[in-house]
Amino acid sequence: MTYLAKSPWILHYDASSCNGCDIEVLACLTPMYDVERFGILNTGNPKHADIFVITGSINEQNREIVKNLYDQIPRPNVVVAVGICACSGGVFRECYNVSGGIDKVIPVDVYVPGCACRPESIIDGIVTALGILEEKRTKMVLDVDKKEHRHAGLNPDHILSTGGVQ
Amino acid sequence: MINIVWAIVFVLVAPLIGGLIAGIDRKITAHMQGRVGPSIFQPFWDVGKLFEKENGVVNETQIFYAICYVIFMAFTGALFFAGGDLLLVIFALTLAQIFLVLGAYSANSPYSFVGAERELLQIMAYEPMVILVAVGLYVATKSFSVSDIASSTVPVILLIPGIFLGFIYVLTIKLRKSPFDISTSHHAHQEIVKGVTTEFSGRSLAWIEITHWYETVLLLGIVYLFFAFNPLLGIAAIIIVYLLEIFLDNTNARAKWQFALKSSWLIAVVVGVVNLAALYVLNGGVS
Amino acid sequence: MQLTQLLIFLILFPLIAAFFLLIAKKDVERNWIVKLSALIIGAVSVFLLITTYNKGAMLVSVIPAEQTGILMFVLEMLIAVYILYLGITYKKWLAVALILVQTVMILFFELFYAHGVHVESNLFIDEFSLIMAMIIGIIGSLICVYSLGYMKFFHEHHTEMPDRRPRFFAILFIFLAAMFGLVFSNNLLWVYFFWEVTTLCSFLLIGYTKTDEAINNAFSALWMNLLGGIAFTCAIIWLATAGGGMLGLSDLLTTGKAIALIPAALIGFAGLTKAAQLPFSSWLVGAMVAPTPVSALLHSSTMVKAGVYIIVRFAPIFQSTFTGYVIAMIGALTFLIASGIAISQSNAKRVLAYSTIANLGLVVACAGIGTYEAIWAAILLIVFHAISKSLLFLATGTVEHRIKSREIDDMTGLIVRTPKIAAMMIIGIAGMFLAPFGMLISKWAAIQAFIDAPLGFLFVIILVFGSAMTVFFWAKWMGKILTVTSDGKNIEGEVDKSEWAALLSLAGLSFVTTLVFPLLSTVLLEPFLLFNYGHVARLSQDNIIIMILMLFLIVLLPLSILIPHRKHRHLAPYMGGRTTTQDMRFSGSLGVQKKTVLSNYYLHPYFGEAKLRPLGIWLCSALIVIMLLATIAKGVIL
Question: Among residues A80, A19, A65, B123, which one has the least CA distance to residue C467?
Fold first, then answer.
């Protein structure tokens, strides 16, 4: 295990949620659930974040913003769609101004359905995200190694995986 | 006078101590809020993680400023623990702090810009009191040299209690604790995103975090100087002062910068004049 | 005698250069004359340093004193007539009244007392004069060289103004001559003569553009300095009557406080006006209407330095007297209040002006306290301030020609737009407030000096607040320059060679002086202090080593940028997720494009000029009145 999984910092963005899920996300920080136990912090700044937690669905107003925020999170990062609206658009799916779930704009790694989600399921989703974060990290290191090998004039395929992803 | 060994020990050990202090701080804070809180090693894991992340920057100069910040802070602390001149330590501390501010300016981002301006306001707020600490210690012990002050048998705290209180007040600003965490803070959310550190990420942010650990140790070292005549008392004072800071942090809302500036200046003037005048009279007109 | 010739050469040579500049009409001729003269003046000053640095104070008395005295008197009268004429032409009655009073007093002195006055040696030199001569000879002449390129550009872009460059350069050199004369004179009558010449030169230079604003500001500089001139005349008359005709500076300084205190207080007052201390600060701020090299000259090597020079000269008299403390308090308050006002200024030249006033205040505070440590700090402040401030003014001038603005907020991203000049500016700013550069060493010395002086803690408290404000306004300026704008284009273009030469030399000087300052201290300052006070001040060996270490770190760290590093991914600045263009435009609500504008904090409600200046003026005026009354009362009773 790397440090990444021990200190996941979160950026929480409300796309166009009814605030039901947002309140549940914040509930995770309360003494009842206390996610800081796992080193989780709600940073409010994409530059510091590892996990992008989005509630609500995509519409024309927030399409660009979601994309920009995602771009500004340093790699490796994962996206957790919290609530059914974020997963698929939910009951608003057919609305004239709603395009659908978050995955219409950026790749989503974990879907946490629910209306609103319970804090337990949000925590469960984030813990699942940690595993994916770990995998992405391994892949990133591997990519860099390959690139360096290529620079050194070696065949990148000769590197064996250091574990994790094949 | 200057003890190189201590300087090296500081550079190597201070991050460990500073990180542990930060971890204990978070644990105690969590308990005060009725939570369990993270492990006391959490700050190390955070920094470890930041080193593992991709280094995203707005522009490359930011990295330079972050590195300068940590180098000059380590230098400042090393100078202090090596027993150098206290005034020079304070000037070097300002220099280090300016690098962080310049890093924030260089990003050309509104949030880090506001953070930088506020950081400068904070510097302006605490600087007079910090220099007065050096002056007070000089008047009490007749030396600006940290090694002389540390080995002095004069009960410094009895001579300059006012200056000590003033220092505790501005220490809240320096440790980025509420109510004076106006340029950036260790709390999750704040109104200017993350202030000065908004545009730093990955490695650079890790360096800034480590710098903060260095700084914490240095500042607690200054607290020790007031009680240096009795080392046990000194360590007790450090612990009590830090607990007090955590308590303040958890019981106060963030103040406006106006309050931070006015109140810390007022306190610096009052304790400065009263305490130094009292010493002046005590010493029979020779300050 | 070689020394005599050197001193007279330094005073007269700039005058000869001025004469040739006045008749040279072509650019090429002027360029040659200025460069050559600057080189000669600089070289001779250095030669003077090399030949006399270890000889202590020396008096020179070979000059035909009587004839020179008469010549000076005639010239003084001519100056008075000229000022009178200008005053009447422009209907500036205050200046007219003051010059009339002054002329009457001088005539009175010449008619009734001049014959009773005899000064053995008219010229002298000691380590302090040498340092001042270095500042005038090197920095002053560099500014003259810089002016060549600047004034050419200035007149190319301000065609509405008449090109009066021959006159301009002539006055610059006369100014240098007067300054040399001032610092080498032992006879107070001579000091007074050169003093008046500097007043006249600054008046003419400030009014150079002949706009209404320039003329008004020139006259306000004139009347304030004439007020100082009157005080100076009073001092001379007092010395001629009650003081038994003792007008030699060296004699006066050794006679003791009983006789010297009253003239010292009067001359101190004259120094306060010339050094633009509160309440007389407004002339220096107004002087920035002049072309930038003039500001550089007034602020760094001439004029205001004449003011502090004379106060530092009289420091042994001020030491531990009530008069001295009041003067020190005026200086300290000026430092505090001017630093505060500088925070609220957005115009770069006004920031520089207030910072000059503030730093001179610190020098005056040190001089008023007058202990050997304080004088050590004062002289260091004079030296380092001259270097950094001239560099800053010149860099601002060059930048101004490129961005067409003096506003600090317009200087955003200079490091991208004009990288080389921006680097010069950064060196200047760093020199003003950061460790380990010179000004900080001096401030450090000042803190130590104050705390060791009786009642010094009051001054220390004022100093720490002033210096905290200093950090604020310099750092925010520095931050603006160092902002990396992603859309910035290089607009540096061709910088005139003469401007470059001056900028680079000054930037080099600010590093070199910081590096060799221990040497400067041992060779020049310590003998001076030992001679006048019997004590020496210095930094401990350890601290010098640490400062040099820091200097190397500061020089080496920027080079780290050259080391190849890993590729970084560029992220857009955080704008709440909004899509932002390269030049920081974003679409606001309703799709309207908005520009991001970042402006510094100026904190007007707290540090505004309108709020702090009246306060400073009242406080310092009251202190000046108290000082003069108390000194005279004491003198009369004794």
Answer: B123
What pLDDT, on the 0 to 100 scale, is given for residue A151?
Answer: 64
ipTM score for this prediction: 0.94
Chain C neighbours (≥3 Cβ pairs under 8 A) are: A, B
Q: Which of B133-137, B252-256, C273-277 has the lowest mean pLDDT?
A: B252-256
Which residues, other chains included, contact B164 with Cβ-Cβ below 8 Å and sequence gap of 6+?
A: B157, B226
Quick check: A42 and B189 CB within 8 A?
yes
Helix (H) or strand (E) holding B51: helix B42-52
Let me know the angle formed at the C-alpha of C73 by C98 and C263, rounded to the nearest 5 degrees.
Answer: 60
Nearest CB neighbour to B128, from listed C464, C485, C600: C464
Query: What is the mean predicted confidence (pLDDT) over B132-138?
Result: 94
Question: Mean pLDDT throughout C382-397?
Answer: 93
Using CA atoms, how far apart are residues C367 and C311, in angstroms rounded to an integer?
6
Number of domains into which chain A is organized? 1
Residue of B37, B46, B194 with shortest CB distance to A7: B46
Q: Where are the domains of chain C?
A: 2-156+166-558+600-637
Q: Are B109 and B199 in contact (CB under 8 A)?
A: yes
Q: How far apart are CA B221 and CA B234, in angstroms?
A: 9
- Strands in A2-101 per DSSP E: 9-14, 41-42, 51-55, 58-59, 78-82, 98-100
Q: Are C571 and A72 inside 8 Å of each other by CB? A: yes
The minimal CB distance from A64 to the residues C569, C574, C579 is found for C579
Q: Name the average pLDDT for chain B.
A: 91
Number of H-type helices and E-type strands within chain A: 4, 7
- Predicted confidence at residue C583, as pLDDT, reads 81
- Kindly tell me the number of DSSP H helices and DSSP E strands found in chain B: 11, 1
Residue A3 has pLDDT above 80, yes or no: yes
Q: Where are the domains of chain B?
A: 4-282
In the predicted structure, residue C469 carries a pLDDT above the cut 50: yes
Residues from chain C that touch A106, judged by Cβ atoms under 8 A, are: none
Are A72 and C574 inside 8 Å of each other by CB? yes
CATH number at residue A52: 3.40.50.12280
CA distance A71 to A49: 11
- State the smallest CA–CA distance between residue A111 and chain B in angstroms: 24
For chain A, the average pLDDT equals 85
Of C435, C568, C573, the CB nearest to B108: C573
Judge: C465–B59 Cβ closer than 8 Å, yes or no. no
Give C268 or C56, the one with higher predicted confidence. Answer: C268
Alpha carbon distance C308, C128 (integer Å): 12
Closest by CA to C206, choosing from C276, C266, C272, is: C276
Segments forming the whole domain that contains residue A33: 3-158
pLDDT in tens, B46-55: 999 999 888 8
Q: Residue type at B118?
A: R
Residues of A in contact with B193 (CB under 8 A): 44-45
Reported as a pLDDT band with limits 50, 70 and 90, residue B183 is confident
Q: Is residue A55 part of a domain?
A: yes
Cβ atoms of C424 and C387 within 8 Å: the answer is: no
Q: B59–C471: do the CB atoms touch at under 8 Å?
A: no
pTM of the model: 0.94
Q: What is the C-alpha radius of gyration for chain C, rounded to an integer number of angstroms?
A: 25
Residue B256 DSSP one-character state: P
The percentage of chain B sitting over the pLDDT mark of 90, rounded to a whole number, equals 73
Q: Measured between beta carbons, which residues in chain C are less than 8 angstroms from residue A105?
A: none
What's the token pair of residue C6?
């050197």
